[in-house]
């Protein structure tokens, strides 16, 4: 007979980080759809663009699912992906192709920095340290 799992308190910072990771997945999807719709160069590689979205967005989505469960790998991979997304957002501001991509880059960078701050906060680190055992 299986034991019922005890209710675990998930800190607010960890819940917010998971929500921000889901927002990054949504921003990735919007950016992919805009890229395929705006640029003719990608029309031949539509499948590649969507496969890339599914792989990278799927991994980020898995991180968003793992963060509230206290899985340490999800915290580490989430911080890595958010860091890369923040750098990509800043680079899109330096060389914007259209206004929509500049705005998406800025929003993505801000969301990424906020997710990193939440994932690396003191209460989040304590949560992941205790849940990871």
Query: Could you tell me the number of beta strands?
Result: 0
Helix tally?
5
Distance between the termini: 23 Å
User: In which range does the helix fraction lie?
Assistant: over 70%
Low-confidence runs: none
Domain count, please report it: 1
Q: Which shape, going by the Cα principal axes? A: elongated
**Biggest sheet: strands, sense, closure?**
none
Structural class: mainly alpha
Strand content: under 5%
Report the C-alpha radius of gyration, rounded.
17 Å
Return the string of H and E elements.
Answer: HHHHH
Key descriptive features of the protein:
133 residues, mainly alpha, 77% helix, elongated
What does this structure look like?
- This protein is mostly helical.
- Helix content is 77%, strand content 0%.
- It has five helices and no strands.
- Helix 1 runs antiparallel to helix 2 and helix 3 (72-94) runs antiparallel to helix 4.
- The mean pLDDT is 84.
């Amino acid at each position: 007979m299986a034991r019922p799992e005890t209710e675990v308190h998930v800190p607010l910072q960890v819940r917010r980080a998971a929500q921000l990771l889901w927002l990054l997945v949504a921003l990735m999807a919007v950016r992919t759809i805009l890229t395929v719709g705006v640029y003719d160069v990608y029309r031949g590689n539509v499948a590649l663009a969507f496969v890339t979205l599914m792989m990278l967005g799927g991994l980020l989505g898995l991180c968003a699912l793992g963060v509230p469960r206290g899985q340490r790998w999800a915290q580490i991979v989430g911080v890595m992906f958010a860091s890369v997304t923040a750098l990509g957002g800043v680079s899109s501001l330096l060389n914007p192709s259209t206004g929509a991509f500049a705005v998406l880059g800025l929003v993505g960078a801000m969301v990424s920095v906020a997710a990193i701050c939440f994932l690396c906060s003191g209460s989040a680190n304590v949560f992941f340290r205790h849940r990871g055992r």
